[in-house]
Amino acid sequence: MKQLNRNKTLNLIGEFALEALLYEAALYPKPGLVDPKSCGAHADMNYFTFIDSSTALAPFLTEYANLGFNHEGTPFALFEKVRTLGQLAEAAMLAKTKGVNTHKGANFSFALLLSATGKIIQDQKLELPFTEKDTAAIFDYIKQMTKGLISKDFAGLAQKKHLSYGEKLYLEHGIVGIRGEAELGYPALKNSALPFLRQHHNREQQTLFLLLLLHLMATIEDSNLINRGGISAWQNVQKQATELLQTFSINSSKKELEDALILFDQQLIKEHLSPGGSADLVALSFFFGRLEGLF
């Protein structure tokens, strides 16, 4: 790949990731989540906080891809490099949002996915758009990058004085969160979200992604929900999302779907519940949709 084409491709990949963050924030209505008309179950942030956060992360998104493209060494060595850069990105995000955590989980995943994308482009001399096989290669490489991540990160938690909510969930319930999703190569994306998008990508985009959000809410282990409301609250949200999916389809009335989701949003606001893990996966799904030229 020539230098000019390489730079153009890597910059474009970074732009796709930024678009994904912005499109997810703009998607409306999202139950319990921040969107342009609702702060969801979040008293400390709004739609503009997400715009600020996205712009703070923007330069790092392209740098993640460059880091992968230029990497020589083991997958784990790339993970160590990208985790260090990811910590700088998180600090920049928190500085921009005055300490509000908007995209910590999304930043972690994009750091992995973008660096793996850059590495796969380097190794296989790929061009955009990607095929399903190209996307699968990224997930396989991430599994190599993150092998043993949970056991390493969660070693010695019982002796640790101050635990993050993710660490508490792991100790109390065995919930592995986004680390577990990464170590398995993002099965929620590979086996569920992306097949749905590939099948329906030519449909109306807002309806498509609202249904994708519901599908993720109904199926994934969302540590954000569990942290806020416990296992029973998470399971109840899963049940309600499943019921909505049984009522609405890709061919349903957009107005009726929106009305139902607004009511769901009002309920989750009262219960202080936010499916943030599902929202991050919506953004990641959009990113891969752009990589594959679906949108």
Describe this structure in words.
The protein has 295 residues and is an all-alpha fold. The chain has one domain. It contains 13 helices and no strands. It has helices at 3-26, 47-69, 75-96, 104-124, 132-145, 149-153, 165-173, 177-183, 187-200, 205-219, 223-247, 254-271, 276-291. The two termini are 24 Å apart. The model has no long low-confidence stretch (mean pLDDT 95).
In short:
The protein has 295 residues and is an all-alpha fold. It has helices spanning 3-26, 47-69, 75-96, 104-124, 132-145, 149-153, 165-173, 177-183, 187-200, 205-219, 223-247, 254-271, 276-291.
Question: What's the SSE blueprint?
Answer:
Elements: H1 3-26, H2 47-69, H3 75-96, H4 104-124, H5 132-145, H6 149-153, H7 165-173, H8 177-183, H9 187-200, H10 205-219, H11 223-247, H12 254-271, H13 276-291
Helix pairs in contact: 1-2, 1-4, 1-13, 2-3, 2-4, 3-4, 3-5, 4-5, 4-13, 9-10, 9-13, 10-11, 10-13
What are the defining features of this structure?
295 residues; mainly alpha; 72% helix; 0% strand
Structural class: mainly alpha
Q: What percent of the residues sit in helical stretches (DSSP H or I)?
A: over 70%
What fraction of the residues are assigned to beta strands by DSSP? under 5%
* Radius of gyration, taken over Cα atoms and rounded to an integer in Å: 18 Å
Main sheet characteristics? none
**Low-confidence region ranges:** none
> From N to C, what is the helix and strand string?
HHHHHHHHHHHHH
Number of helices: 13
How many extended strands? 0
End-to-end separation: 24 Å
From the spread of the alpha carbons, the general shape counts as: globular
Mean model confidence by pLDDT: 95
Query: How many domain regions?
Result: 1
